[in-house]
Amino acid sequence: MTVRLSDPSVTGTRPPGLLLGIDFGGTKMAVGVSDADGRLLAHRRVPTHAEQGAPQALSRALKLAVDLVGEVGGPLAAAGVASPGVVRPDGIDLAPNVPGWERLRLADAVRDALDVPRVAVDNDLNAAALAELRLGALRGVDPGLVVGIGTGIAAAVTVGGAVLPGHRGAAGEIGYAVAGGPWPGTMLELDFSGRALDRLAADLGVPDGAAGLTAAAETPGAARDALAARVDEAARTLVTCCLLLDPQRIVLVGGVTRSVVIRRMLVDRLTEALPHPPDVVRSRFADDSALYGALALARDTVPVPH
After folding, report:
1. 230 near 192, Cβ under 8 Å?
2. What is the rounded distance in angstroms from the CA atom of residue 97 to the CA atom of residue 86?
3. Which residue has the higher pLDDT, 115 or 287?
4. Which residues pair with 47 in a beta bridge?
5. Which pLDDT score is estimated for 124?
């Protein structure tokens, strides 16, 4: 797929040099190098191996980035990084899926490894929402909601054509929403996320984790009933989000959203519960929206030439 971060008909606005994007996730990491218009020149995805800890994941991603920049050739103008959690200069909050992630200084690590002058880092769902605003399903949509269901679950809010970070940068961390009972119940992410569905599949004796569970849920039975109960928990949180925000459209990203049965269940529940249900679509680059967002972050750091 050819995707541009800018309108190629507009001259004199393209920053010189290459752009690097890195999307860190709990299951996979994606690295891409693009030209100034966002056309991917090299792109590779590797597993995170989260159980082995944060340092090895960061080291492998940086080595891949160095290799891809070397393959493409040419100067690197800027880098953008999408990461789970709330990114601070000296660490990362609310990123429990990779042990040790909270101690990373991503901007410094990327800057040192690639000798790149400009590095921008943001939450991965915020980056995905930026990509949807610039390139995808949220162009001309206001307000919008991006919901990511992968290793974990999170959301990003867009209002007035911009991503809403929140007071501490933690807007959209719906994985911490209260689920189940009695009070305070549990966290939504422990009930509904890729890892939660992997555990549920194992408990039911269904092979192939979340993918196997959603395949089994295509027909009536225990797997479908168990999955529906977990979708109910997510739907309750999304209904509340919709009542608060009244989004024009919800965009679904992440590996779990490949499941037609999960998407159908979510849409049915939102339609039933909401007086004004929003349009719900899956991103056309759902697995790479945060990567395209990282490239957009990189581009935004480069001064526009006159």
Report:
1. yes
2. 13
3. 115
4. 28
5. 96
